[in-house]
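Objective 1b: paired records.
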Amino acid sequence: MAILGFNLQKGELHFCMMNGTRANPRYVAHDRHRFDVDQTKPEMANFFKQTFNELIEAQKPRGLAYRLSMDGKKADQIAYLTFPFGILSLVAYERGLTADQSTIHTFTKKALAHPGDKFTACDDRIANRPTAWPNASKLGSGLIDPEDEDCRESDC
């Protein structure tokens, strides 16, 4: 597998590139891109389309994933927390890549088969990760579901 995962927060697009297999994920890279939440919708669409394309070109993933936030309570929050993933879905479609969605409910002790919280699960299960890395990036990396029966070791 070579999965590029995304997580959005106010003014920040976090990404994490993972490799390896679903059972044994390996960290490759993570970073954050800042954006202006008050920019116009066309400017925001342009920013995200350009940024997603640049990251895909640089990282060369076989698939994409994103954590859809359920935190938006106001129209302006919903715009910057969900709108970019419509752009990502379009970019994925244009490039022939899958774009899998998850929510915070994906990251439960039961779903992760881990006794600790979602962040320690990422730290415990992901090889070659940095000693300290942001929780927002971990939410991008934690999109890998080790119990996915559709994924075989040879084609992940």
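Objective 1b, second protein:
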Amino acid sequence: MIVQLLQFNGIGIKKATMAINIWQRRYAETKFTTSRQTIDISPDIHVKRAMCKLGLINMSGSQKLNYNKIDKDVVIYKARAINPKFPALLDFAFWKIGKDKICKNNGCESKKEKQCPFESFCPTAKKYLQKQNKPRL
């Protein structure tokens, strides 16, 4: 299905995987659905930001603070490793984290008054809290 969508002008990997992901979740009980294992995460800038900030993808050298340089295949393979039965299930959660800038480009939401929801396991939050000597959860 994704290959067919990619044949349309203006449809890239992000839109194709997002459309199939939505379609799969909506019509999961019908006999026409594709295998959930074949539906990948949409590797956009927000997903990349969230995965990096949560320590799921390591950034090095020229990639530092430039999420566009992260190979989309790295994002896809990491999502497959985390949830091999349905990698795209992670798509909306990571997109929301990155889009709403819960995990910011230049730091962490923990520096604000409110508490970061990922503080207990996020390496970015842990580093920031150590610098600030804030008590951890």
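Residues 102 and 109 are 6 Å apart (CA to CA). The first helix runs from residue 2 to 6.
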